[in-house]
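Protocol step 4 of 6: record predicted structures for both targets in the notebook before any analysis. Target 1:
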Amino acid sequence: MIRAVVAIALAAALLSAALPAVESAAADRTASALDRDVDRIERAGASLLADDDPGGRRVLTISVPAGSLVAAGVDSVTLRCRPDCVVRYVLGSGTVRTRRIELPLVTPDGAVRFGTPGDHRLVLGLAEGDDGRVVTVRG
Protein backbone atom coordinates (compact mmCIF):
# COMPACT_ATOMS: atom_id res chain seq x y z
CA MET A 1 0.00 0.00 0.00
CA ILE A 2 2.77 2.41 0.94
CA ARG A 3 4.62 1.57 -2.27
CA ALA A 4 1.56 2.43 -4.33
CA VAL A 5 1.15 5.78 -2.55
CA VAL A 6 4.84 6.60 -3.00
CA ALA A 7 4.67 5.60 -6.69
CA ILE A 8 1.63 7.81 -7.27
CA ALA A 9 3.25 10.73 -5.45
CA LEU A 10 6.45 10.30 -7.47
CA ALA A 11 4.52 10.11 -10.75
CA ALA A 12 2.58 13.27 -9.86
CA ALA A 13 5.81 15.10 -9.00
CA LEU A 14 7.44 14.06 -12.28
CA LEU A 15 4.38 15.07 -14.27
CA SER A 16 4.17 18.49 -12.62
CA ALA A 17 7.87 19.04 -13.30
CA ALA A 18 7.57 18.02 -16.97
CA LEU A 19 4.39 19.92 -17.94
CA PRO A 20 5.97 23.40 -18.12
CA ALA A 21 8.57 22.04 -20.55
CA VAL A 22 5.83 20.48 -22.69
CA GLU A 23 3.88 23.76 -22.73
CA SER A 24 7.00 25.72 -23.62
CA ALA A 25 7.83 23.32 -26.45
CA ALA A 26 4.26 23.60 -27.76
CA ALA A 27 4.48 27.41 -27.75
CA ASP A 28 7.85 27.31 -29.52
CA ARG A 29 6.49 24.91 -32.14
CA THR A 30 3.48 27.13 -32.80
CA ALA A 31 5.65 30.26 -33.02
CA SER A 32 7.97 28.52 -35.49
CA ALA A 33 5.03 27.47 -37.67
CA LEU A 34 3.64 31.01 -37.71
CA ASP A 35 7.09 32.44 -38.43
CA ARG A 36 7.34 30.12 -41.45
CA ASP A 37 4.01 31.50 -42.69
CA VAL A 38 5.33 35.07 -42.29
CA ASP A 39 8.44 34.05 -44.25
CA ARG A 40 6.19 32.69 -47.01
CA ILE A 41 4.32 36.02 -47.13
CA GLU A 42 7.62 37.88 -47.48
CA ARG A 43 8.90 35.55 -50.21
CA ALA A 44 5.64 35.75 -52.17
CA GLY A 45 5.61 39.56 -51.91
CA ALA A 46 9.26 39.81 -52.97
CA SER A 47 8.56 37.49 -55.90
CA LEU A 48 5.63 39.66 -57.02
CA LEU A 49 7.78 42.79 -56.89
CA ALA A 50 10.68 41.18 -58.76
CA ASP A 51 8.91 39.10 -61.39
CA ASP A 52 5.37 40.35 -62.06
CA ASP A 53 3.58 43.25 -63.68
CA PRO A 54 0.87 45.19 -61.85
CA GLY A 55 -2.18 42.96 -61.56
CA GLY A 56 -0.15 39.87 -60.69
CA ARG A 57 -1.17 37.97 -57.58
CA ARG A 58 -0.30 35.11 -55.27
CA VAL A 59 -2.69 33.16 -53.06
CA LEU A 60 -1.30 31.73 -49.83
CA THR A 61 -2.82 29.54 -47.16
CA ILE A 62 -2.02 30.55 -43.60
CA SER A 63 -2.53 27.85 -40.97
CA VAL A 64 -3.60 28.97 -37.51
CA PRO A 65 -3.07 26.03 -35.16
CA ALA A 66 -5.61 24.92 -32.59
CA GLY A 67 -4.44 24.19 -29.09
CA SER A 68 -3.26 20.64 -28.46
CA LEU A 69 -0.60 18.78 -26.54
CA VAL A 70 2.00 19.57 -29.22
CA ALA A 71 0.84 23.04 -30.33
CA ALA A 72 -0.16 26.11 -28.36
CA GLY A 73 -3.51 27.62 -29.23
CA VAL A 74 -3.54 30.94 -31.08
CA ASP A 75 -6.02 33.66 -30.13
CA SER A 76 -5.38 35.79 -33.21
CA VAL A 77 -3.06 36.52 -36.12
CA THR A 78 -3.16 40.10 -37.43
CA LEU A 79 -1.38 41.71 -40.38
CA ARG A 80 -1.48 45.51 -40.10
CA CYS A 81 0.23 48.18 -42.21
CA ARG A 82 -0.03 51.43 -40.26
CA PRO A 83 2.53 52.97 -40.30
CA ASP A 84 4.82 49.92 -40.68
CA CYS A 85 3.72 46.46 -41.74
CA VAL A 86 3.77 43.93 -38.93
CA VAL A 87 2.34 40.50 -38.29
CA ARG A 88 1.27 40.15 -34.67
CA TYR A 89 0.08 36.92 -33.16
CA VAL A 90 -1.23 36.19 -29.71
CA LEU A 91 -0.82 32.70 -28.32
CA GLY A 92 -3.44 31.20 -26.04
CA SER A 93 -1.06 31.66 -23.10
CA GLY A 94 -1.16 35.44 -23.67
CA THR A 95 2.31 35.61 -25.22
CA VAL A 96 2.41 38.25 -27.96
CA ARG A 97 4.92 38.07 -30.81
CA THR A 98 5.41 40.67 -33.51
CA ARG A 99 7.35 40.44 -36.78
CA ARG A 100 8.00 43.39 -39.03
CA ILE A 101 7.72 42.87 -42.79
CA GLU A 102 10.26 44.80 -44.85
CA LEU A 103 8.23 45.09 -48.06
CA PRO A 104 6.06 47.87 -49.47
CA LEU A 105 2.76 46.31 -48.34
CA VAL A 106 -0.67 47.88 -48.03
CA THR A 107 -3.88 46.47 -46.58
CA PRO A 108 -6.54 48.41 -48.52
CA ASP A 109 -9.43 46.86 -46.58
CA GLY A 110 -7.85 47.48 -43.17
CA ALA A 111 -5.97 45.04 -40.98
CA VAL A 112 -6.23 41.37 -41.94
CA ARG A 113 -7.17 39.34 -38.86
CA PHE A 114 -7.62 35.60 -38.37
CA GLY A 115 -9.15 34.65 -35.03
CA THR A 116 -10.14 31.03 -35.52
CA PRO A 117 -7.99 27.92 -35.90
CA GLY A 118 -7.67 26.38 -39.33
CA ASP A 119 -6.52 27.31 -42.80
CA HIS A 120 -7.12 30.86 -44.02
CA ARG A 121 -6.63 32.34 -47.48
CA LEU A 122 -4.43 35.38 -47.99
CA VAL A 123 -4.31 37.10 -51.40
CA LEU A 124 -1.28 39.19 -52.33
CA GLY A 125 -1.54 41.41 -55.40
CA LEU A 126 0.80 43.79 -57.16
CA ALA A 127 -0.42 47.35 -57.74
CA GLU A 128 0.90 50.81 -58.55
CA GLY A 129 0.91 53.04 -55.49
CA ASP A 130 1.69 56.71 -54.95
CA ASP A 131 5.34 55.85 -54.23
CA GLY A 132 5.78 53.09 -56.82
CA ARG A 133 4.82 49.45 -56.87
CA VAL A 134 3.23 47.97 -53.73
CA VAL A 135 1.95 44.58 -52.67
CA THR A 136 -1.67 44.58 -51.55
CA VAL A 137 -2.81 42.08 -48.94
CA ARG A 138 -6.39 40.90 -48.47
CA GLY A 139 -7.75 38.13 -46.26
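Target 2:
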Amino acid sequence: MSTTGNTDMMYPYLTAAIPGIGGIFKDSAEDFAVTEIPLYPPCGSGEHVYATVEKKALTTLELLRRLARTLAVAERDIGYAGMKDARGITRQTVSIPGVSPEQVAALEIPGVTVVSVARHNNKLRLGHLAGNRFRIRLRGVRENARQLAQAALDIISSRGLPNYFGGQRYGVLGNSALIGIRLLQGDPEGAVRALIGNPEEIGDERWRSAVQAFHNGNLAAAVERMPPHCRTEKEVLKTLLRRPEGWERAVKSIHPRIINLYLSAAQSSLFDRTVAARIDALDRIEPGDIACKHANGACFLVTDAAEATARAASFEISATGPMFGRKMLIPAGQAAALEEEILETAGLPRDTFNGSGRFRLDGERRPLRVPLQDVTVAMDDGSLLLEFILPKGSYATSVLREIMK
Protein backbone atom coordinates (compact mmCIF):
# COMPACT_ATOMS: atom_id res chain seq x y z
CA MET A 1 0.00 0.00 0.00
CA SER A 2 1.28 3.41 -0.90
CA THR A 3 1.86 5.62 2.11
CA THR A 4 3.74 8.50 0.57
CA GLY A 5 2.87 11.75 -1.06
CA ASN A 6 3.77 12.66 -4.61
CA THR A 7 6.39 14.89 -6.17
CA ASP A 8 7.93 15.23 -9.61
CA MET A 9 11.03 13.43 -8.35
CA MET A 10 9.16 10.12 -8.23
CA TYR A 11 8.73 9.87 -11.97
CA PRO A 12 11.26 8.74 -14.58
CA TYR A 13 12.33 10.99 -17.43
CA LEU A 14 11.77 10.26 -21.11
CA THR A 15 15.08 12.04 -21.76
CA ALA A 16 17.06 10.40 -18.96
CA ALA A 17 20.16 10.08 -21.17
CA ILE A 18 20.38 13.88 -21.65
CA PRO A 19 21.94 15.83 -18.73
CA GLY A 20 19.83 18.59 -17.21
CA ILE A 21 20.62 22.27 -17.68
CA GLY A 22 19.75 23.29 -14.10
CA GLY A 23 18.60 26.86 -13.74
CA ILE A 24 15.90 28.86 -11.96
CA PHE A 25 12.26 28.86 -13.06
CA LYS A 26 9.94 31.82 -12.41
CA ASP A 27 12.59 34.08 -10.89
CA SER A 28 10.21 36.93 -11.79
CA ALA A 29 6.70 37.18 -13.22
CA GLU A 30 8.07 38.14 -16.62
CA ASP A 31 9.93 34.81 -16.81
CA PHE A 32 6.72 32.87 -17.38
CA ALA A 33 4.08 33.91 -19.91
CA VAL A 34 1.16 31.81 -21.10
CA THR A 35 -1.45 32.71 -23.69
CA GLU A 36 -4.61 30.72 -24.25
CA ILE A 37 -5.31 29.58 -27.80
CA PRO A 38 -9.09 29.90 -28.30
CA LEU A 39 -11.12 26.99 -29.58
CA TYR A 40 -13.24 29.41 -31.63
CA PRO A 41 -13.49 33.19 -32.14
CA PRO A 42 -16.45 35.16 -30.76
CA CYS A 43 -19.17 35.60 -33.38
CA GLY A 44 -19.65 39.34 -32.82
CA SER A 45 -23.19 39.29 -31.42
CA GLY A 46 -25.00 37.94 -28.37
CA GLU A 47 -25.54 38.62 -24.67
CA HIS A 48 -22.01 37.71 -23.52
CA VAL A 49 -18.92 39.87 -23.83
CA TYR A 50 -15.79 37.83 -24.52
CA ALA A 51 -12.84 39.71 -23.04
CA THR A 52 -9.25 38.68 -23.53
CA VAL A 53 -7.40 39.93 -20.46
CA GLU A 54 -3.80 39.91 -19.35
CA LYS A 55 -3.32 39.31 -15.64
CA LYS A 56 -0.29 39.43 -13.39
CA ALA A 57 0.07 37.98 -9.87
CA LEU A 58 -3.59 36.85 -9.86
CA THR A 59 -5.19 33.43 -9.98
CA THR A 60 -8.08 32.91 -12.36
CA LEU A 61 -10.48 32.69 -9.40
CA GLU A 62 -9.26 36.03 -8.03
CA LEU A 63 -9.65 37.54 -11.50
CA LEU A 64 -13.27 36.36 -11.58
CA ARG A 65 -13.93 37.83 -8.12
CA ARG A 66 -12.57 41.22 -9.14
CA LEU A 67 -14.49 41.27 -12.40
CA ALA A 68 -17.71 40.29 -10.64
CA ARG A 69 -17.27 42.93 -7.96
CA THR A 70 -16.36 45.72 -10.38
CA LEU A 71 -19.09 44.96 -12.93
CA ALA A 72 -21.78 43.94 -10.38
CA VAL A 73 -22.17 40.54 -12.05
CA ALA A 74 -22.60 37.21 -10.24
CA GLU A 75 -19.25 35.44 -10.16
CA ARG A 76 -20.85 32.15 -11.18
CA ASP A 77 -22.12 33.76 -14.40
CA ILE A 78 -18.63 34.64 -15.64
CA GLY A 79 -17.25 31.96 -17.93
CA TYR A 80 -13.65 30.90 -18.46
CA ALA A 81 -11.91 28.18 -20.46
CA GLY A 82 -8.99 27.29 -18.20
CA MET A 83 -7.54 27.81 -14.73
CA LYS A 84 -4.29 29.78 -14.50
CA ASP A 85 -2.21 30.30 -11.37
CA ALA A 86 -0.95 33.58 -9.94
CA ARG A 87 2.69 33.27 -10.90
CA GLY A 88 3.67 34.75 -14.23
CA ILE A 89 1.81 36.76 -16.85
CA THR A 90 -1.18 35.09 -18.46
CA ARG A 91 -3.61 36.00 -21.22
CA GLN A 92 -6.95 34.30 -21.10
CA THR A 93 -10.50 34.88 -22.25
CA VAL A 94 -13.51 35.28 -19.99
CA SER A 95 -17.19 35.72 -20.87
CA ILE A 96 -19.34 38.23 -19.00
CA PRO A 97 -23.14 38.51 -19.44
CA GLY A 98 -25.30 41.60 -19.16
CA VAL A 99 -22.60 44.20 -19.81
CA SER A 100 -21.46 46.19 -22.82
CA PRO A 101 -18.11 45.82 -24.58
CA GLU A 102 -17.44 49.46 -23.73
CA GLN A 103 -17.90 48.81 -20.01
CA VAL A 104 -15.44 45.95 -20.10
CA ALA A 105 -12.90 47.78 -22.25
CA ALA A 106 -12.90 50.67 -19.76
CA LEU A 107 -12.17 48.48 -16.73
CA GLU A 108 -9.38 49.57 -14.41
CA ILE A 109 -8.47 46.68 -12.12
CA PRO A 110 -5.02 46.37 -10.52
CA GLY A 111 -3.06 43.58 -12.18
CA VAL A 112 -5.51 43.28 -15.07
CA THR A 113 -5.31 44.71 -18.60
CA VAL A 114 -8.16 44.28 -21.08
CA VAL A 115 -6.64 43.35 -24.44
CA SER A 116 -9.75 42.90 -26.60
CA VAL A 117 -13.54 42.61 -26.34
CA ALA A 118 -16.22 41.13 -28.61
CA ARG A 119 -19.73 39.76 -28.25
CA HIS A 120 -20.76 36.11 -28.39
CA ASN A 121 -24.03 34.25 -27.90
CA ASN A 122 -22.86 31.57 -25.42
CA LYS A 123 -21.08 31.47 -22.08
CA LEU A 124 -17.45 30.35 -22.28
CA ARG A 125 -17.13 26.89 -20.73
CA LEU A 126 -14.25 25.16 -18.97
CA GLY A 127 -12.18 23.29 -21.55
CA HIS A 128 -13.22 25.47 -24.49
CA LEU A 129 -9.67 26.19 -25.61
CA ALA A 130 -7.38 24.55 -28.14
CA GLY A 131 -4.24 24.81 -26.04
CA ASN A 132 -1.74 27.19 -24.50
CA ARG A 133 1.31 28.97 -25.87
CA PHE A 134 4.17 29.30 -23.37
CA ARG A 135 7.13 31.65 -23.30
CA ILE A 136 9.58 30.80 -20.51
CA ARG A 137 12.93 32.16 -19.39
CA LEU A 138 15.25 29.94 -17.35
CA ARG A 139 18.02 31.80 -15.54
CA GLY A 140 21.34 30.52 -14.21
CA VAL A 141 21.59 27.61 -16.66
CA ARG A 142 24.70 25.68 -17.71
CA GLU A 143 26.94 27.07 -20.46
CA ASN A 144 25.84 24.43 -22.99
CA ALA A 145 22.19 24.76 -22.00
CA ARG A 146 20.93 25.42 -25.51
CA GLN A 147 22.49 22.27 -26.94
CA LEU A 148 21.27 20.09 -24.07
CA ALA A 149 17.77 21.58 -24.16
CA GLN A 150 17.56 21.11 -27.92
CA ALA A 151 18.63 17.47 -27.62
CA ALA A 152 15.93 16.80 -25.01
CA LEU A 153 13.29 18.68 -26.99
CA ASP A 154 14.14 16.75 -30.16
CA ILE A 155 13.37 13.50 -28.33
CA ILE A 156 10.12 14.92 -26.93
CA SER A 157 9.07 16.28 -30.33
CA SER A 158 9.68 12.88 -31.89
CA ARG A 159 8.20 10.59 -29.21
CA GLY A 160 5.75 12.90 -27.41
CA LEU A 161 5.76 14.63 -24.05
CA PRO A 162 5.03 12.44 -21.01
CA ASN A 163 1.63 13.78 -19.98
CA TYR A 164 2.37 13.84 -16.24
CA PHE A 165 0.27 16.04 -13.99
CA GLY A 166 3.35 16.45 -11.80
CA GLY A 167 4.04 18.13 -8.51
CA GLN A 168 1.80 21.18 -8.89
CA ARG A 169 -1.20 18.83 -8.72
CA TYR A 170 -0.34 17.52 -5.27
CA GLY A 171 -0.17 20.59 -3.04
CA VAL A 172 2.57 22.40 -1.16
CA LEU A 173 3.38 19.34 0.97
CA GLY A 174 2.84 16.87 -1.87
CA ASN A 175 0.13 15.18 0.20
CA SER A 176 -3.08 15.90 -1.72
CA ALA A 177 -3.10 12.56 -3.55
CA LEU A 178 -2.52 10.60 -0.35
CA ILE A 179 -5.42 12.42 1.32
CA GLY A 180 -7.62 11.49 -1.64
CA ILE A 181 -6.52 7.85 -1.56
CA ARG A 182 -7.24 7.61 2.17
CA LEU A 183 -10.71 9.07 1.53
CA LEU A 184 -11.34 6.51 -1.20
CA GLN A 185 -10.18 3.75 1.16
CA GLY A 186 -12.79 4.86 3.69
CA ASP A 187 -10.07 5.79 6.19
CA PRO A 188 -11.04 9.17 7.69
CA GLU A 189 -8.32 9.05 10.35
CA GLY A 190 -5.70 8.35 7.70
CA ALA A 191 -7.06 11.20 5.57
CA VAL A 192 -6.84 13.65 8.47
CA ARG A 193 -3.32 12.55 9.38
CA ALA A 194 -2.25 12.89 5.75
CA LEU A 195 -3.83 16.36 5.64
CA ILE A 196 -2.05 17.64 8.74
CA GLY A 197 1.22 16.28 7.39
CA ASN A 198 4.70 15.45 8.62
CA PRO A 199 6.50 18.18 10.63
CA GLU A 200 9.84 17.11 9.16
CA GLU A 201 8.63 18.17 5.69
CA ILE A 202 7.55 21.69 6.74
CA GLY A 203 9.99 24.59 6.68
CA ASP A 204 7.83 27.30 8.24
CA GLU A 205 8.50 27.27 12.00
CA ARG A 206 4.98 28.14 13.15
CA TRP A 207 3.36 25.65 10.79
CA ARG A 208 5.81 22.92 11.80
CA SER A 209 5.12 23.62 15.48
CA ALA A 210 1.37 23.26 14.92
CA VAL A 211 1.79 19.94 13.14
CA GLN A 212 4.13 18.67 15.85
CA ALA A 213 1.56 19.64 18.49
CA PHE A 214 -1.05 17.58 16.63
CA HIS A 215 1.24 14.55 16.58
CA ASN A 216 1.90 15.05 20.30
CA GLY A 217 -1.84 14.99 20.97
CA ASN A 218 -2.07 18.68 21.94
CA LEU A 219 -4.98 19.71 19.74
CA ALA A 220 -5.50 23.08 21.44
CA ALA A 221 -1.91 24.11 20.70
CA ALA A 222 -2.21 22.79 17.15
CA VAL A 223 -5.27 24.97 16.53
CA GLU A 224 -3.61 28.03 18.07
CA ARG A 225 -0.37 27.67 16.11
CA MET A 226 -1.74 26.65 12.71
CA PRO A 227 -1.06 29.56 10.28
CA PRO A 228 -4.04 31.47 8.81
CA HIS A 229 -3.37 30.24 5.27
CA CYS A 230 -3.97 26.63 6.44
CA ARG A 231 -7.74 27.15 6.62
CA THR A 232 -8.75 23.57 5.92
CA GLU A 233 -6.27 22.13 8.41
CA LYS A 234 -7.40 24.58 11.08
CA GLU A 235 -11.08 23.77 10.61
CA VAL A 236 -10.35 20.05 10.85
CA LEU A 237 -8.33 20.56 14.04
CA LYS A 238 -11.11 22.65 15.58
CA THR A 239 -13.57 19.84 14.86
CA LEU A 240 -11.24 17.30 16.46
CA LEU A 241 -10.76 19.55 19.48
CA ARG A 242 -14.50 19.39 20.10
CA ARG A 243 -14.54 15.62 19.56
CA PRO A 244 -10.99 14.16 19.64
CA GLU A 245 -11.88 10.80 18.04
CA GLY A 246 -14.39 12.26 15.60
CA TRP A 247 -12.38 11.55 12.46
CA GLU A 248 -15.42 11.17 10.20
CA ARG A 249 -16.90 14.42 11.48
CA ALA A 250 -13.54 16.12 10.92
CA VAL A 251 -13.54 14.99 7.28
CA LYS A 252 -17.10 16.28 6.86
CA SER A 253 -15.91 19.71 7.99
CA ILE A 254 -13.80 19.98 4.82
CA HIS A 255 -15.48 21.99 2.06
CA PRO A 256 -16.80 19.74 -0.75
CA ARG A 257 -14.75 21.67 -3.32
CA ILE A 258 -11.58 20.86 -1.37
CA ILE A 259 -12.62 17.21 -1.06
CA ASN A 260 -12.98 17.11 -4.84
CA LEU A 261 -9.46 18.51 -5.23
CA TYR A 262 -8.09 15.69 -3.07
CA LEU A 263 -10.01 13.06 -5.04
CA SER A 264 -8.82 14.57 -8.31
CA ALA A 265 -5.25 14.49 -7.01
CA ALA A 266 -5.67 10.79 -6.21
CA GLN A 267 -6.87 10.12 -9.75
CA SER A 268 -3.95 12.15 -11.11
CA SER A 269 -1.45 10.23 -9.00
CA LEU A 270 -2.69 6.89 -10.31
CA PHE A 271 -2.47 8.22 -13.86
CA ASP A 272 1.07 9.53 -13.30
CA ARG A 273 2.10 6.11 -12.02
CA THR A 274 0.79 4.63 -15.26
CA VAL A 275 2.84 7.06 -17.35
CA ALA A 276 5.91 6.24 -15.26
CA ALA A 277 5.40 2.49 -15.75
CA ARG A 278 5.11 2.90 -19.53
CA ILE A 279 7.72 5.61 -20.06
CA ASP A 280 10.06 3.39 -22.11
CA ALA A 281 7.25 2.51 -24.51
CA LEU A 282 5.47 5.85 -24.35
CA ASP A 283 5.01 6.06 -28.12
CA ARG A 284 3.85 2.46 -28.60
CA ILE A 285 0.37 0.99 -28.58
CA GLU A 286 -0.43 -2.56 -27.52
CA PRO A 287 -3.46 -4.77 -28.20
CA GLY A 288 -6.04 -4.06 -25.51
CA ASP A 289 -5.01 -0.44 -25.06
CA ILE A 290 -7.62 2.29 -25.06
CA ALA A 291 -6.29 4.73 -27.66
CA CYS A 292 -7.18 8.40 -27.98
CA LYS A 293 -7.51 10.45 -31.17
CA HIS A 294 -5.62 13.69 -30.62
CA ALA A 295 -7.85 15.61 -33.05
CA ASN A 296 -11.08 15.17 -31.10
CA GLY A 297 -10.36 13.16 -27.93
CA ALA A 298 -12.40 10.15 -29.03
CA CYS A 299 -11.28 6.88 -27.40
CA PHE A 300 -11.49 3.30 -28.66
CA LEU A 301 -10.27 -0.20 -27.80
CA VAL A 302 -7.27 -1.27 -29.89
CA THR A 303 -7.77 -4.62 -31.64
CA ASP A 304 -5.48 -4.16 -34.65
CA ALA A 305 -2.07 -3.37 -33.18
CA ALA A 306 -0.32 -2.99 -36.55
CA GLU A 307 -2.79 -0.39 -37.79
CA ALA A 308 -2.76 1.43 -34.43
CA THR A 309 1.04 1.49 -34.38
CA ALA A 310 1.13 3.23 -37.77
CA ARG A 311 -1.39 5.82 -36.58
CA ALA A 312 0.61 6.35 -33.39
CA ALA A 313 3.80 6.89 -35.40
CA SER A 314 2.12 9.82 -37.20
CA PHE A 315 0.84 11.13 -33.84
CA GLU A 316 -2.77 10.67 -34.90
CA ILE A 317 -3.42 8.58 -31.79
CA SER A 318 -1.77 7.66 -28.51
CA ALA A 319 -2.30 5.10 -25.78
CA THR A 320 -4.18 6.37 -22.74
CA GLY A 321 -4.00 5.94 -19.01
CA PRO A 322 -6.72 5.87 -16.36
CA MET A 323 -8.44 8.70 -14.59
CA PHE A 324 -10.35 6.09 -12.61
CA GLY A 325 -14.10 6.45 -12.28
CA ARG A 326 -17.41 4.72 -12.94
CA LYS A 327 -17.69 5.90 -16.58
CA MET A 328 -14.07 5.25 -17.58
CA LEU A 329 -13.41 2.85 -20.46
CA ILE A 330 -11.50 -0.20 -19.20
CA PRO A 331 -8.68 -1.65 -21.34
CA ALA A 332 -7.81 -5.30 -21.90
CA GLY A 333 -4.63 -7.35 -21.96
CA GLN A 334 -1.39 -5.96 -20.54
CA ALA A 335 -2.82 -2.45 -20.11
CA ALA A 336 -5.62 -3.81 -17.91
CA ALA A 337 -3.16 -5.87 -15.87
CA LEU A 338 -0.95 -2.83 -15.27
CA GLU A 339 -3.87 -0.68 -14.15
CA GLU A 340 -5.07 -3.41 -11.77
CA GLU A 341 -1.54 -3.59 -10.33
CA ILE A 342 -1.45 0.18 -9.81
CA LEU A 343 -4.77 0.06 -7.97
CA GLU A 344 -3.58 -2.85 -5.84
CA THR A 345 -0.37 -1.02 -4.93
CA ALA A 346 -2.45 1.97 -3.85
CA GLY A 347 -4.70 -0.24 -1.73
CA LEU A 348 -7.78 0.43 -3.85
CA PRO A 349 -10.02 -2.36 -5.20
CA ARG A 350 -11.51 -1.75 -8.65
CA ASP A 351 -15.02 -1.45 -7.19
CA THR A 352 -13.86 1.71 -5.36
CA PHE A 353 -14.85 3.52 -8.54
CA ASN A 354 -18.13 1.79 -9.44
CA GLY A 355 -20.21 4.64 -8.01
CA SER A 356 -21.60 2.69 -5.04
CA GLY A 357 -19.45 4.38 -2.41
CA ARG A 358 -19.60 7.81 -0.82
CA PHE A 359 -17.57 9.46 -3.56
CA ARG A 360 -18.81 9.30 -7.15
CA LEU A 361 -16.07 9.90 -9.69
CA ASP A 362 -17.02 9.72 -13.36
CA GLY A 363 -13.50 9.13 -14.65
CA GLU A 364 -12.09 9.33 -18.17
CA ARG A 365 -9.10 8.30 -20.25
CA ARG A 366 -6.13 10.66 -20.65
CA PRO A 367 -3.38 10.32 -23.30
CA LEU A 368 -0.07 9.08 -21.93
CA ARG A 369 1.73 11.53 -24.22
CA VAL A 370 0.89 14.77 -26.02
CA PRO A 371 2.48 16.61 -28.96
CA LEU A 372 4.90 19.45 -28.31
CA GLN A 373 4.53 22.03 -31.09
CA ASP A 374 6.10 25.25 -32.41
CA VAL A 375 9.22 24.79 -30.29
CA THR A 376 11.96 27.44 -30.27
CA VAL A 377 15.06 27.55 -28.09
CA ALA A 378 17.48 30.46 -27.76
CA MET A 379 20.04 31.91 -25.38
CA ASP A 380 19.65 35.51 -24.22
CA ASP A 381 22.14 37.14 -21.86
CA GLY A 382 22.95 33.87 -20.13
CA SER A 383 19.31 32.77 -19.89
CA LEU A 384 17.52 30.12 -21.92
CA LEU A 385 14.35 31.24 -23.70
CA LEU A 386 11.79 28.57 -24.56
CA GLU A 387 8.60 28.86 -26.58
CA PHE A 388 6.18 26.02 -27.31
CA ILE A 389 2.52 25.05 -27.56
CA LEU A 390 0.79 22.34 -25.53
CA PRO A 391 -2.76 20.99 -25.78
CA LYS A 392 -5.23 21.99 -23.09
CA GLY A 393 -4.85 20.09 -19.85
CA SER A 394 -1.10 19.53 -20.23
CA TYR A 395 1.54 21.28 -18.17
CA ALA A 396 4.64 23.28 -19.07
CA THR A 397 6.32 21.88 -15.95
CA SER A 398 6.40 18.49 -17.69
CA VAL A 399 8.57 20.05 -20.39
CA LEU A 400 10.79 21.90 -17.93
CA ARG A 401 11.48 18.85 -15.74
CA GLU A 402 12.80 16.99 -18.81
CA ILE A 403 15.13 19.91 -19.61
CA MET A 404 16.22 21.09 -16.16
CA LYS A 405 16.32 17.81 -14.20
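Step 5 preliminary note on target 2. The longest helix spans residues 256-277. The mean pLDDT is 95.
Proceed to step 6 after PI sign-off.
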